[in-house]
Design a protein that fits this description.
Chain lengths: 514, 90
């Protein structure tokens, strides 16, 4: 008997079957009533079928590969923890990288998961809906695995357990929080540019590639495996962001000015967020792998230019901030680290003055700026610290109304002058770190007047631990910030002399002797 | 100047074969070794061919298995059963 064997479907056919044949147009209600959000931002779409997800991942393949990634991740994590992993990092200063990462990154992954769930519901085409849903599941995975991988360190080192409480309250975590708050309260297309393009394409390349390669170099197998596992999804995510930009530009020429404004805005917002990531690479990894400047050149200047040159055929121009970011790459990480060092009572991680060989590394990597502007400051602080006069800025920082970074970066063209801008809206004065943030505010003032800035709100008596009587005659606003932050004081201030430093030395000693 | 398309992988036994296949199929490929990872730059267009990877590995290979090892990519992607292509038009 002859049996007719049907040929297995090819990848493109399988993907088309899933995203086209399984989708339908609604009939009980008109499509524009079911999907109203895609019309709010002024983006014109004529044919959703033109959206092609280049990864063409079907559900069965998605679950299969994601499950394998998880098995691999946990095999490594288990082995690392079973092998005294908490003692195998280069030195205990490294732990502070994880403290900063834990407060700043997993909560944003969770926001990304929420955002992509929303956008998956709001998009009309089945292609983007499926891709957004997969991305949402990925982001949940990142959120959970990042926390899980760091949880073993939490058993041994101080300052990691209140990251979820601190995320929306701590002054220095506000830049990331505001990035996602801004994106998720925009429409679906702007969200895709904000996260898919600026966050995934510009930011995660620098966060997860050189920084995680650095974690590997510093003996942190847990962060390495979780970082690489997350980044294996990011390649898919950045492709989705890029596809969305191309799709908007191809659908209607009227979309160009809207998309351009988003590219300008979100490239700048991404850049501001990167200052603290760069600081980790330049100052906090005991064993350095590359400078932030070098990473910026590879992943933003070269890789970003490749993208903008490619998009030029649609009329897209390089973002307005491009030249300023190139000037700033030699400054921002130094300004950030000095800023954190100056506030030893206000961060649940330690700071230190780099060792002489580390200062030399910075001089070599930043020949135009480090010796001229920053080394003298660090050496001055070092002398003061040794003389028992450790610098301690106890005031609340001033934050930018848009990016919520502390206002500390320099005036373009003048590294000795701090950049500061202000504008008046409806009789109230608002402050900014840069011309770009001021312009973003002026485009949508009604949105940004609502920005929550804890360091400003504290002075109005709005950031107090439970039970505080703000009407008491001796009440002083901001005096109980540590309790409001739930800050572990053991984790704050100088690394030298800290409990983490002592424990690490003692435990490592015990691990190699009987 | 032609922009580089690139791909980066975690460094492991499978990706050693994949990188060898890329180098065979892309004469202009430049391999950059970094701690725990490997990055391959190719001006303009980077192609990964299933058959070449299979020769290097000595087994069947589904190009979507790349997902397990990927760290990052640059370029517009076109993926089929036989080829995984990253390219810039400019």
């Amino acid at each position: 008997m002859d049996m007719k064997v049907s040929k297995k479907l090819g990848l493109k056919e399988r993907y088309t079957m899933m995203t086209r044949d399984l989708a339908w147009d609604t009939t009980f209600q008109p499509m524009d009533k079911v999907f109203p959000q895609v019309g709010y931002e002024g983006i014109k779409i004529h044919d959703w079928d033109q959206w092609e997800d280049p990864f063409r991942l079907t559900m069965d393949a998605y679950w299969k590969y994601q499950a394998e990634k998880e098995r691999k991740l946990y095999a490594i994590l288990d082995a690392f923890n079973q092998n005294n992993g908490h003692l195998s990092v280069t030195d205990a200063r490294y732990m502070n990288v994880l403290k900063l990462f834990l407060g700043s990154t997993p909560p944003l992954e969770l926001m990304a998961a929420r955002g992509f769930s929303m956008v998956a519901r709001q998009m009309v085409g089945a292609g983007p809906r499926v891709a957004c849903m997969m991305q949402s599941v990925d982001e949940y995975r990142h959120f959970q695995t990042q926390i899980h991988s760091i949880s073993n360190y939490n058993r041994f080192y101080n300052g990691m357990d209140e990251f979820a409480h601190q995320q929306s309250r701590m002054w220095y975590l506000a830049d990331g929080k505001s990035f996602f708050d801004d994106a998720i309260t925009a429409g679906p297309f702007e969200f895709m540019v904000a996260i898919g393009f600026a966050f995934e394409y510009v930011l995660t390349n620098i966060l997860f590639v050189p920084f995680i390669s650095g974690a590997a170099y510093n003996g942190d197998m847990a962060a390495m495996t979780v970082g690489f596992s997350a980044q294996s999804d990011e390649a898919r995510h950045m492709t989705l962001g890029l596809e969305c930009i191309k799709f908007m530009l191809e659908q209607d020429p009227d979309n160009l000015p809207i998309v351009q404004r988003w590219i300008d805005k979100w490239t700048w917002r991404g850049t501001r967020k990167l200052a603290s990531v760069g600081m980790m690479m330049d100052y906090m990894l005991p064993k350095r792998i590359m400078s932030f400047k070098e990473a910026w050149e590879i992943y933003f200047e070269q890789n970003g230019s490749a993208l903008f040159n490619d998009l030029a055929r649609y009329g897209v121009k390089v973002p307005k901030c491009f030249a300023q970011t190139i000037e700033e790459k030699e400054h921002i990480t130094h300004q950030s680290w000095i800023g954190f060092y100056m506030k030893p009572d206000a961060c649940p991680f330690h700071t230190w003055i780099p060792a002489p060989d580390e200062l030399d590394w910075l001089s070599e990597k930043y020949p135009n700026t480090f010796d001229k502007y920053y080394r003298p400051v660090l050496e001055h602080f070092d002398r003061q610290e040794k003389a028992g006069n450790r610098f301690n800025n106890k005031t609340q920082p001033m934050n930018c109304q848009v990016c919520v970074s502390t206002i500390k970066f320099n005036e373009p063209g003048d590294p000795m002058e701090m950049c500061f801008r202000e504008t008046v809206y409806k009789g109230e004065k608002f402050h900014f770190c840069s011309d770009h943030c001021k312009e973003i505010f002026e485009d949508e003032p009604e949105k940004y007047v609502q920005t929550f800035i804890s360091s400003h709100a504290a002075l109005q008596g709005k950031c107090e631990p439970d039970g505080t009587d703000v009407n008491a005659h001796d009440y002083r606003p901001g005096a109980r910030m540590h309790a409001y932050w739930r800050m572990d004081k053991r984790a704050a201030g100088d690394f030298n002399g800290s409990e983490d430093q002592k424990n690490f030395a003692q435990w490592r000693d015990q691990a190699t002797k009987n | 100047m032609t922009s580089n398309a690139f791909i980066a992988f975690q460094k492991n036994e499978e990706t050693r074969c994949i990188v060898e296949a890329i180098v065979d199929d892309n004469p202009d490929a430049v391999v950059v070794d970094q701690p725990a990872m490997v990055k391959v730059d190719v001006p303009g267009r980077l192609v990964i061919r299933r058959t070449t990877v299979e020769e290097k590995m000595g087994r069947d290979f589904d190009l979507q298995e790349l997902q397990l090892h990927l760290i990052t990519i640059s370029g517009h992607l076109d993926e089929s059963d036989d080829e995984f292509v990253l390219s810039w038009q400019s």
